[in-house]
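[step 3/7] inverse_fold.run input=structure_tokens len=134
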């Protein structure tokens, strides 16, 4: 059996604001909206990953705690950590921590979206054992 990631679902306090953040900061493109109240969206990021944004029923303050049980962050592979950081910083993305070593080789840089959900950039060297399967 073969699996391919189609989308990642994110329950949002404010789906419209979060959709706007992914569009303006990460060059996302809205490929679906349900035109209902509350709204839901599918936003495609460059590279093909889609993020489904829909209304949350409740939330917790610890959303950005990377050690909280459950899915904790979205890793975005980039060719150059510095280039990606500079481009995102110019769009208002705030990086609160320094660059760190990545498990499997390379470097990571964490940041949060408009609702505190964790993402990070990951740059892998050419000889990294972490490679996508075809």
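[step 3/7] decode complete -> sequence:
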């Amino acid at each position: 059996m073969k699996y391919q990631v189609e989308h990642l679902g994110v329950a949002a306090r404010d789906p419209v604001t979060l959709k706007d953040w992914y569009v303006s900061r990460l060059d996302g493109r809205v490929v679906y909206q349900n035109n209902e109240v509350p709204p839901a969206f599918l936003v495609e990021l460059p590279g093909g990953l889609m993020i489904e944004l829909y209304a949350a029923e409740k939330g917790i303050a610890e959303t950005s705690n990377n050690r909280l049980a459950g899915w904790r962050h979205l890793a975005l592979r980039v060719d150059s950590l510095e280039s990606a950081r500079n481009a995102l910083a110019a769009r208002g993305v705030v990086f609160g921590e320094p660059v760190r070593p990545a498990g499997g080789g390379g470097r990571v840089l964490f940041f949060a979206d408009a609702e505190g959900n964790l993402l990070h950039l990951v740059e892998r060297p050419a000889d990294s054992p972490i490679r996508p399967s075809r």
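[step 4/7] annotate
The longest strand covers residues 7-12.
Helices lie at 15-26, 81-90.
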